[in-house]
UniProtKB/TrEMBL annotation:
This is Dihydroorotate dehydrogenase (quinone). It catalyses: (S)-dihydroorotate + a quinone = orotate + a quinol. One of its GO terms (biological process) is 'de novo' UMP biosynthetic process. It is an enzyme of class 1 (oxidoreductase). It is a peripheral membrane protein. FMN binds at A66, G67, F68, D69, K70, T90, N144, N177, K218, T246, G270, G299, Y320, T321.
Amino acid sequence: MYNLIKPLFFKYDPEVIHHKVFNWIKNVQAIPGAKQMIKATYCLEDNRLAREVFGIKFKNPVGLAAGFDKDAKLFDELGNLGFGFIEVGTITPVGQPGNDKPRMFRLVDDEALINRMGFNNEGVDEMVKRLKNRKDHSLIIGGNIGKNKVTPNDVADEDFVICFEKLFDVVDYFVVNVSSPNTPGLRDLQDKEPLKKLLFRLQTLNETKPKSKPILLKIAPDLTNEQLDDIIEIVLETKIAGVIATNTTISREGLKSNPDLVNQMGGLSGKPVKDRSTEVIRYLSQKSNKAFPIIGVGGIHSGDDAIEKLNAGASLVQIYTGFIYKGPGLVKEINKKILEKGL
């Protein structure tokens, strides 16, 4: 079905069609009986898919990565497509428009996207209002938090703390995003000392709560092995729950698409980042002796791609670009493959 309508979708600007499809998913599921039919088509219910990771029970290990539902407007409807968890955001304390358009580019020959969205969102208060109306609490929601573009790095901690405090009662876990290439200077916060300072502050705050919530760190695929060693040290020292590997890459190695597209500024996602993402997962898992959970994301376009991430050391996986290229059937395909492999 999706392969029949995808050529029509791909005639539109990627950001324009994102909003059209977004609204279509919401409107279709408002039709009486449609939600049940969609769940019957795309959901795979099987107790063998359940996972408990960093103290949270997931009904299946396939999640939607941050960036698709930036403002938590569609999480219930997306859950009906078979996802075990949805990550909303990246959210910032104050709403911001993001970078100038066009800011998303489709590299069809590479099954990839380049984006330079720049954390466009409506602000954390609007997100909180929507998440308070959650219908399905069996669907795990993660809150991906960042800093506003105008916030200097030396006080960036404050932005993360604001988002953490406001979202604490309405999400199940947190993701600290210091790895997007589209906010100037943000990746500097991945350096050892500022990152340690930020995570210690959030974890100290977390421990003051009646019941703490998992905090994960999302990292770039462009880190060197030495930097990954630092990440392992920081995760163990700050006692955060785990790592999401990986975000988009600034590399353009081996791309086949039109140079006008390839040379666009921004983060590259999709198939070209698959191997590097898996390498990072394997390195972190082996070097840390599996000391913390890893959520694997990057270039998952098939069930076999997801199995590769799980075999490399991931406990859960997330999709985004593969969801756009392969459609919602990808979630069920991955879950079927996991059952088939007995993972």
